[in-house]
Give the backbone structure.
Amino acid sequence: MKVSVSELIVRYLERLGVEFIFGMPGAHVLPIYDRLHDSKVKTVLVKHEQGAAFMAGGHARVSGKVAACITTAGPGATNLVTGIANAYADRLPILIITGETSTYFFGKGALQESSGEGGAIDLAGLFRGITRYHKVVERTDYLGQVLHQASRALFAPEPGPVLLCIPYNVQKEMVEEDILDAIVVKPAARVMRGQSGQGSELARMLMAASAPVIVAGYGCINSGAQETIAQLSDCLGIPVATSLKAKGVIAEGGGLSLGCLGVTSNGHAFRHIVDHADLVLLLGAGFNERTSYLWDARLLANKKVVQVDSDPRQLEKVFRADVAIHGDIDDILAEVLAAVRAGGVARKNLDKFSGSQSAQKPLASGGADSHAKFLLVEKFFAGLAARFPAGAQIFDDNIIFAQHFFNVSRGNRYFPNTGISSLGHAIPAAIGARFAQPWPTFAILGDGGFQMCCMEIMTAVNYGLPLNVVVINNSTMGLIRKNQFQLYNERFIDCDFVNPDFELLARSFGIHHRRIAVESDLDDLFATADLEGSINLIEILLDKNAFPDYLSDR
């Protein structure tokens, strides 16, 4: 039996397990939209295509499944670029469907043409560097192979975005429906273990060390190794630091947590590792610029270094390891834990461990007296942790304050703005996440980034999606102003601006507004606001000249 290509694409989405597709219709993609009308794949109309890409990214991060977005040709597709680049850097499986002018118009200057012919923009070329697979489908005779390659990229061990650009006339052509029967639409079974005996060798190294430290990265979350790490840490008395992206792998604020390791953190984990550790066990951590303090040699100097990662490309990418193990982190640590328990080894001497300081107060530039300027932000994160000890998801574009003040529990999910660190990410990403997981959801961002994406609040309104948008209101691009203050002799340029009246803006959206100007406002917020079932715009006032102290940017 024959079906249209547009029908086949929708069936492909269904087979992939796609639940929502985020986007905006246009003339060149309406045949696919028409077939989505009766599909179990639910469409979500966004306010800007960049928001569609960020929503798909947020959905993929929370659900662990393939997410999807759809746009028309030309500007609809080009507006996706930043969000898809972010997903590429974060290795998120996102299927991108775009329309295109009919093939018989290629090279003739058709409206919104992006075929690359006759001086038109080259959409495939534009996406080449930010997708794992991309194809302009000009014919149907190889459609089955195209979908096969798309599936391979989406379900690869290191997945990423896939672009399928389908011209208008091709969407209307008829093909055999059994094309899909030969296409794999689920991950292949993945068996990954370290070499035999490496777990036992690692156990011996940990038992022999006097002051080992675990540095847990996002790979631990992908492996589901949180519980095994907690057990190994408790069994041997090993302090655990995390990368920014892995906050919450071990519950912060108590036990053996060193908190977050990173250039914008409070420095407690860094100081403990530099001053006391004799072995560092890096688990699924890329050791990027933030985590490594710009690859500071002191962090790993004069120590045994063991690295375990499921991605062989990460092993010894930026440093030499005494032992480098390619394998599933949870499997290897389970072997280590079994060997340690069998050996009956006592816990490490923790005299040099000064206790958890994951929420140690930072000092603002200008000395300890300036810390009061951050009090509202600090109290907000403390209140958030207390109000939601479990079952909340937080998307954070600001990150610096959360690194200092927010103790992430094992029961919450914290999603910092990683990828290419784009402003305007938190709100649409949180919306995509809320479609995937009906937990209390927070988008935290500065007032500069807010004005890049605030129109997507109406997407949440349109779909009745509860959401808390928390805006740090200091009427400036905080990082830029900090750098211009510290590095450029206070020659401020293009960092300050005037904000809208957030209360009036919230009223125009038809949502609730809270303004946090004094501590009692926070008490009232957490005591009376519906942070689970309504849409709230919460602004926290901050002095524009309050600069957190951390390693200055180069």
Notes: The radius of gyration is 25 Å. Residues 2-182 form a domain with the Rossmann fold fold (CATH 3.40.50.970). The mean pLDDT is 90.
